[in-house]
Structure formats: structure tokens, C-alpha cells
Amino acid sequence: MTTTDEHMKRGTDWLSKGGLRPTRQRVALACLLVGDGEHRHVTAESLYSDARDSGESVSLATVYNTLRAFCEAGLMHEVTVDGTKSYFDTNTHDHPHFFWEDTGVLMDAPTDQLEIARLPQAPAGAEIASVDVVIRLRRA
Amino acid sequence: MTTTDEHMKRGTDWLSKGGLRPTRQRVALACLLVGDGEHRHVTAESLYSDARDSGESVSLATVYNTLRAFCEAGLMHEVTVDGTKSYFDTNTHDHPHFFWEDTGVLMDAPTDQLEIARLPQAPAGAEIASVDVVIRLRRA
DNA sequence: TTAAGTGCAAATTATTTGCAGTAAG
DNA sequence: CTTACTGCAAATAATTTGCACTTAA
Lengths: 140, 140
Prior knowledge:
The structure is a homodimer of 140-residue chains. Chain A is α+β, with helices and mostly antiparallel strands and 140 residues long.
């Protein structure tokens, strides 16, 4: 099977895992996101321009709506690192991030190299939903 | 000395520590932020309404500009926990936060109860600017 | 006196929504 | 067929900015 076929299969499989209709736009975005099996960190704008670059016709509003739908379906996670824009991550496991302050690039940090020995206990009446760790980087 | 005098002194001292002119508006906001010696987490809107509630006349734009000025002067830190609004913290040390997902309230988490045994090393050419730890809470 | 600070109202940026049209099951 | 999805354009929300006016040093 060709690389493209493989990408396509990964994309559609991923969509059906989330119970989402495989429309042309969604399949295109899904392939861009998980087609090669790697995790990806995107903003609505970056995914939009990736789509246009690869010749796909999708509107920006649909990219926004689709990313929201992917998150609601549990296929992606929103990562909050920069007040001005939202980042979306295809890796839905709780894991640390590197954030380059100068370029605004978000990357995974190696999970196995983070070890939290002790964590503050949740206040009464609360439980911990997730622990976000963002390692902010500056050019040395 | 009265409580108000003390608040006023803390506020003006804090401003001069940042090398900022003690204008009426800045002194008022500074007193609200550090007057009682406690750390505080605010948004522009919340500080604006606190100011109006205490009878101070400040415009919302000035609250925004002032919070920015306080951050640039190193008196406060911006905390990114919610894509839709910016939070500002009077505690400028690197420390963990609790974030209540339902109410949007941000609080300090006890620093001494967090122990990071191992941290991913910064990629080549980078150095760690800060490590943000946000513990997201949901109502149990 | 003069450079910095303030307050509007208008501008900007990221994102969401209403609604008419299109397509998937 | 029927309900969900898409695409625009307009709406919204948080924040910033331009500019005339005020005030601290």
C-alpha cells in the first residue's frame, strides 16, 4: 500500500475512533494530524495553512470547529501555553511540554525524563483533573 | 499607624521597588494587590471591579496597561492557564498553581509539597526560562 | 517644564456563531 | 430523506493603541 493510502487509513481510523463522520475536510485535517503516526502540535492557523499548502480547500472557521470537535471526541487535547492563541496536541496523555518563548513553537518533552516525586494534594472537595507541566525555553 | 496607612505604605513601597511613578491610579491598584501583604491572583476585569468596588476611579484600559507595566517591572508574573483571559500573580517566584476548572479561580499551591525529582534537559541551544506547573482541579 | 501616565473610543486579534447550502448515513 | 457538517460573513471577547489631556518629578 502507498504512503498516501496509509496516511488516509490512519486518518479515517482515527476519526472513527472518535465517532466522527469522515467528511472530506475532516479526513484531510486528520491525515495532516496523524497520517504519519507522529504526534503533532498545531494552532488553528498553522493547521489551516498546512491544509492550504497541501492543496486542500477548508475554511478557517471549519478548522476551528473541527479542532474543537476533535477535542470533544477525546482525540486531541488543548494545551494552554500562550494567552494569545490555542494549541492542540494529538498526544492525549498527560505529558510535559517544551515551549520556545521566542518562536512560539510547542513540542513534547520526553515523559520518561520527568519525575514528580511529590505533588500538592488537592484541596478538600476537589480532585486533580490533570497536571500541566510546561518547560519554557529561551535561546541560550 | 492605621491599617489604611499600612496598605498605602506597602503599595507605594512596592511601586518604588519597581521604579514606577506613584500615580493615583497605580497606588490604588498596588494597594489592592499587595496592601495586606498577601499574594493575589487577578485578571484585568477582576482587578477593575475590585477598584470600582472600593470607590476608585480607574479605566479598564489603564488597568490593562498598569498590569503590563507591573509585569515589565518584575513586580508581577503573568500566568497562562486559560486561553481566554490572562491572570496576573503578585508572587513572582516559580511556584505551582491550582486552577479550578469550573470557576476559573487561580490559587497558589503549596510550594513545599511539590518535588520534581528529575526534569527533562533543555534541547541543545536552549536554556530553561521557567517551569510552569498547573494542577487543574475539578469539583469532586 | 516635560516626559510619563491616563482615559476614552476605535482598532486588532483570536475565536465563535447564525444561517443557508451541501453531503453523509 | 434527515441530520450533521461546512463556509462564509458578521458577532464577540479580551486586549491594545492613537491621541488629546493631566500630572509627577
